[in-house]
Amino acid sequence: MGQFIQFVITRATMALITLLTVSLIVFTLMELVPGTCAERYLAFKNTQGSQITIADIEAEERRLGLDRPFPERWGKWVYSVFVHGEFGDSCILRLNINQLLADKFWISLGICMAALLLSYAIAVPIGIISASSRSPVTNNTLRFVSYLGLALPNFLLALIIMLIATVYFGESLTGLYSKELRDAPWNLAKFKDFLGHAWLPVFILGWSATAFALQTVRALMLDEIGKLYVTAASARGVSGARLLWRYPAKHSLGPVINSLGFDLNRIFNELPIVALILTLTEAGALLFESLARSNDQQLAGAIIFLLTASIVALNFATDILLALIDPRVRRGMMG
Amino acid sequence: MKRYLLSGVAMLVLPAAAYANCPAVTMGDSMGVAAGAFPQQYELSEFETAAGCSMEFSENPAIGELNARIAGNPALPPLADRLPAEPLVVVPYDSVGHYGGTFDALSNATEAGTSDFLSVRHVNLVRYSDNLQTIVPNVAKSWEWNDDYTQLTFHLRKGHKWSDGAPFTSADVKFWYDNLMFDSNVIEKPKDYVLVGGERMTVDTPDETTVVFNLPAPKPGLLAHFATSYAQGFQPMHFLGQFHPAINADADALAQSLGFENGYDAIKAYYGNSDWTDTPSPMLNSPDKVANLPGAAVPTLESHFVVNETTEGRHFVANPYFHMVDTTGQQLPYINEMDEIYANDHEVRLLKLINGEVDYKAQSLGLPDAPILLENQGNGDYTLQIAPRISMPTVSFNVTHEDEARRAVFGDVNFRKAMSIAIDRNEINETAYFGQGVPRQYIGFSPVPSFVDPSWTSYAAEYDPDGAKALLDGVGVVDADGDGMRDLPNGDKLIINMQFAQQGLPGQVVELISQQWAEVGIQTTVKEVTPDEYRSAQSSNQLDVGLWEKSQPLAIVLGNNELWVPPFENYFAHRSGMLWAEWIDSNGASGVEPPDYVKGLISDINAFQSTPVGTPESDAIGARMVEAMTSNLLFIGTVLSSGPIYHANALKNFPEFKTESYEYYRTYPYLGAQWYLDE
Amino acid sequence: MLWRRKATAGVDQAAKEAYFTASQGQLIWSRFSSNRTAMIAAWALVLMIFMGLFAPFLSPYDPTIAGRDEQYENGPPQIPKFWDENGFSWRPFIYATERERSMATNFRWVITENRDERLYMQFFTRDWDYKLFHLDYDLPGKAFDVDFALISSDIHLFGVQGGQIHLFGTDASGKDIFSRTLHAIWTSLAVGTLGVFISFVLALIIGGVAGYFGGWIDSVLQMITDAIRTVPSIPLFMALAAFMPDTWSSETRFFFISIILGLIGWPTLARRIRTHLLTERTQEYVLAAELSGAKPGHIIRRHLLPSFTSYIIVDLMISFPYMVRSETALSFIGLGLKDPVNSLGALMQNVSKADVLLNYQWYFIPVIFFIALVLAFVFVGDGLRDAADPYSDTKK
Predict the structure, then answer these.
(1) What is the model's pLDDT at position A88?
(2) B354 contacts C354? CB cut-off 8 A
(3) What does the buried/exposed string (b/e) look like for A129-151 if buried means 16 or more CB atoms within 10 Å of the residue's CB?
(4) Mean pLDDT of chain C
(5) Of A100, B38, C212, C242, which sits 20 to 30 A from B521 (CA to CA)?
């Protein structure tokens, strides 16, 4: 037990260090954009006819702490994010970022997690079953489907679905809520309405992930099925579903769980573009707008950081889960 | 006997008939009632006399429930106490409407692309009627000028109330003028339209319903300003005044008790720091404090009041204290609720429009969008009108660019002229406007007034790429490094960065201009940004070129000089010469001194506004202004065309618009309050 | 598998010998060539590379704005015919078109064919100038500018007399989509190659060092690698690309995007190399080499590297589609390549517009090419992996 706790602590520390490194990357990105927050803010105040002089800009920079050296600013940002969970204000929109992101991030996360679960719910059973089939037709079909997942990226799929929907059904299939429930507080009706709209993004985002997962599960299963202990079990008379499940499946699940974090990464990857196409009002769309249409690096940095933090958190959780399930991992990570 | 009986009955019936409820007069069917002093509307007594009836008022059955949703509103008093003693009687266009429905609107983002929806519920002291010629009463019942246009008196309506039930009086107008417009803590620099030749006016309030503006010099355009501007000439003194240190000695303490830094901070949360009436309410800018505030937004006289605001949209309900009624006495507005959502992507907006999810839209749409909108009218159950525009897409060069080399080049009028004749306006007209427009140079006025020499409208508007190349060579912008593209005189690369927002002009026009300039050797990059980003970059003097629509009719210019004084328009539109503006505002302390012709423009516009329009003197000044503006090509015009106006078929009483323009304030002349939804 | 039967038949001694003395490359090739799907994909890939390489020759019109057909904007594809009601012709032809537009047509150009006027196709026509196998890069700093061409010509494979032929239709400004697609294939391939190359070099160095030396070097490098891997790549691309000044020339953008792709792509490859090295370096043959006194460099070069060359080749092939896909995604949202240097992604930029979805569906044609390109890479990569793995036949 002590070993396990030690393992958890090690893992947690590593996750934290990863987060810090990520925060450094993100913060550096935020700094790269020309034009400081002070200039932007004062440019807005220009609307009231107030004049901006260099002295004003410098004063504002001092007020916002922009003239401090880089490590100090990074440290402050990290402190504010890690300890308080506060991301500060968006320079362009002049609103607090937490307030801006609020619901939206949880929704994005929810959609992506749902996509992940959906993809594994489909891929795992089909992958396992197909591994036991020797037919070249199944073989090739599955390979083709999984390659299509790569060749037809989520956003292209979204486009094609939009095309069909708009041309043939006259529906725009966009948005996350119907008009009436948009401003309502969360209750059962709103949740059901949300589900009614969210199935499409979940499906599209899960598409690539399903394709990959299918291939991965099948390859892993094939690896395991070839191993001697399976042959031994089969020789002993175990057969059918029991053979599949008790032996190779359990062991191939390990790497599958391991890769959950990276699957989430891939899903987050596609999220901004899919959100753009389907006009979802959530974090992915905000990210796109903040990077492509305005230069809102604070908002973009906050969103990227949150996305990455979720992945790190998921990685951490899966590592612990794996350690619980698989004794090899426990031993391996200790040594 | 029969005769006595009949006449007896007649005697009984006639008076009853004389005092029956008023006929449902509409613009389509006047029912024999003579028109009033002003088109499409009457004062109450005027109507009752003309129609021979006694008006009985009725209200929206849902108004009680709607009122309950306005935070801070008292319980609903009876209708008679909510309407002014003399409400404005409005004649609906087609039919007397019925109550109900939710109006769906689409804007770009908070404070971006919201004005056409804002104009639907907008009110001001007066209004232009739909012929865009006649000014008619609105909040004000009547007005008078004195002989030499140095005194303008408005008569308000007795018993008119704000949306929270408090009385609306002349003190609200004075408060707006003295304590908001001229308090530098609220609005740092007074807007030009509250000044006359740079001087302040004084506002007197002899009694509750009379407001007198005393002008230091004549300015006949002041009245038209109130008819066309988004800036409402009144604000609730009972509400904002409680936070204003000049009105309420305990303002700061009160504000602090509610969580603000001081009184002005509270005013800023409600009113913002400019005259723009569509600023975010405390629901968006101070959500943590809203619950304790006396109201979720500042009370208004508009037809609808905001009850919910997020970064994704807003929701409005009908104002229970609105001052207009229809000819049968129903209190307007007919539409119960309004729902506005934001979509910052042009394609997304188009899709929503095609699918019939919006009830009205004109802003941010251009003629290039017309084909797809026209084709889907049946599917989406809407109608698209095409109406002439007043402003046209214009290009300007940053003559006070941060980079000295560029400033020198952009500041050379020959460079600007070269770029103007390098634009193939016919191609723009054919490609983007389907041949429906007229190539035109920017002269400042649109439509073209009579005193303007017509040749100015085509000055440097011909397509002459060889001439352009010759001029560019003359300026020193030649290809120094042999890559086929021209460079600055000092040898540095010249790449012109063209940032634009779809709200300002169609993207296709920008791309065409960019290609045409490339053909004379000027390299450009084109990038679409949000309106916010564009305005922000413009404010901080970071743009190479300005790209937005521009032009105003004569009537507006008489009241508002912003097109003729650096930076040549307000924050929301097309500005240039930012550093000249800084020089003027700081009285020479910082910025760049503008050239003489700009100073000439400033003095000319002041003179123009003080001179009665139509006189030879005024014409001469006007012609001079146009010559200075056009010959210096500060702004380069392209094509004046028409624009689309979209409205759902379920939206009734929606007339043919005379123009598709922001000038005259969009839907304001067309009485949005009497629109109704017939699902 | 044919060769397996031959081998196990044990009849042909020469074949057996050939098998046992064949080099690794020959073995891989023979296995690969017997995999039908992989061969088809390989031919498709070669065909597309060829099309991209000779794009200027194959395209009748200049893909940039200079080559647009102002009379045929948003025009549907024109397929050449051999035969119509007016008779048969050996030379393929298309019809001359006229167009009109008014309020009645909702301001859309209505294109009518004039079936009596035929425009015959010609081959090896002379049209716009181009250079093949040329380098013309305008990088920051005059010293880096390069302009060198192997073939300069103005001959094109086909064209039409008295008009223009648009096999895939035209876009809103009248640019020929066929020409643009061919050029875009080449650009996408070029960006992908450069990105893969950069990421490969980086991965080799970093993964190699980490895998070979192990210990704390490995841990530190692992942490950095993991951190970069954890951040979703497309948002990271977007952030980096957004910071690119608009004033850079297209070629500079091209290089910058390839560099970004490479910089973000190396962690995956590095991890694989490192894992493989970690396992291999404990193998006996390495131990044997060390005991014989071989230096680390020699061991890496002569022993370790060849052991997973096949994996590396396969991984490179598999990374290609990811690179192409990432670049396509970036260009699609407008942050990647722009006119006049177009990639498949840039061509797809206008595809999501409502107008296009409803009326101009031929804009989707580059999508088909994109899918075909990626599928080809993937199948070839897969085939290579099966061919390179000496135990693959037992896993089938």
Answers:
(1) 75
(2) yes
(3) ebbbeeeeebbeebbbebbbbbb
(4) 78
(5) C242
Residue B404, token pair as written in the block: 């000295």
Q: At what angle do helices A188-225 and A136-151 cross, to 10 degrees?
A: 130
Q: Do C354 and B525 make contact, defined as CB atoms within 8 angstroms?
A: no
What residue type is assigned to position A221 of the chain?
Answer: M
pLDDT of residue C1: 47
Residues 6+ away with beta carbon under 8 Å from C90:
C82
Of B192, B316, B341, B348, which to mutate for an interface test with A (greatest number of A Cβ within 10 Å)? B348
Q: Which of C229, C334, C357 sits opposite A292 (nearest CB)?
A: C334
State pTM to two decimals.
0.82
Work out the minimum CA distance from B547 to partner chain A, whole angstroms.
16
Work out the percent of chain C whose per-residue pLDDT is above 90.
4
Give the pLDDT score at C394. 45
Cα–Cα distances in angstroms (integers) from residue C367 to residues A73, C43, C68, C181, C333, in the given order:
45, 20, 21, 10, 15
pLDDT for C4 beyond 60 = no
Q: Which residues of chain A have pLDDT under 70?
A: 1, 33-57, 63-65, 91-94, 134, 166-167, 169-186, 240-252, 279, 281, 292-295, 327-335
Q: pLDDT per residue over C274-322, tens digit each? A: 777 777 777 787 778 878 887 877 776 777 666 667 677 777 777 788 8
Give pLDDT, residue C137. Answer: 59
- Phi, psi for B56 (deg, rounded to 5): -105, 130
Tell whether the model's pLDDT for residue C117 goes beyond 90. no
Joined tokens for residue C200: 């490969």
How many angstroms separate the Cα of A50 from the Cα of each of A41, A63, B201, B662, C188? 12, 18, 22, 26, 49
Interface contact C243-A32, CB threshold 8 A: yes
Q: What is the pLDDT of residue C82?
A: 85
- ipTM of model: 0.73
Q: Is C65 on the interface with B (CB under 8 A)?
A: yes
Q: How many helices (H) and strands (E) does chain C have?
A: 17, 6
Distance between CA atoms of residues B592 and B581, nearest Å:
8
Pseudo-torsion of CA B268, B286, B306, B503, nearest 10°?
A: 70
Tell me which chain A residues have a C-beta less than 8 angstroms from the C-beta of B315.
183
Alpha helices in B207-364 (DSSP H): 221-228, 237-240, 251-257, 263-271, 282-285, 346-354
Select the residue from A269, A271, A279, A307 to test the C interface by mutation, using most C Cβ atoms within 10 A. A269
Give residue A172's pLDDT: 60
Which H helix or E strand runs over B637?
strand B635-637
Specify the CATH number for C182-395; select among 1.10.3720.10, 3.10.20.880, 1.10.10.10, 3.60.15.10. Answer: 1.10.3720.10
Which amino acid is present at C216?
A: W
DSSP state of B493: B
- C75 band by pLDDT with thresholds 50, 70 and 90: confident
Which residue among A35, A92, A179 places its CB closest to the CB of B339?
A: A179
Task: Enumerate residues 6+ apart whose C-beta is below 8 A from C83.
Answer: C89
* Residue C185 backbone class (left: φ over 0; alpha: ψ -120 to 50; beta: rest): alpha
Q: Which residues does chain B have with pLDDT short of 50?
A: 14-18
Give the nearest chain A residue to B112 (CA atoms).
A93
For B546, list phi and psi in degrees, rounded to 5: -95, 140
Cα angle A130-A131-A134, degrees, rounded to a multiple of 5: 85
Positive or negative: CA dihedral B298, B299, B300, B304: positive
- What residues does each domain of chain C span? 68-172, 182-395
* Per-residue confidence (pLDDT) for residue B17, from 0 to 100: 44
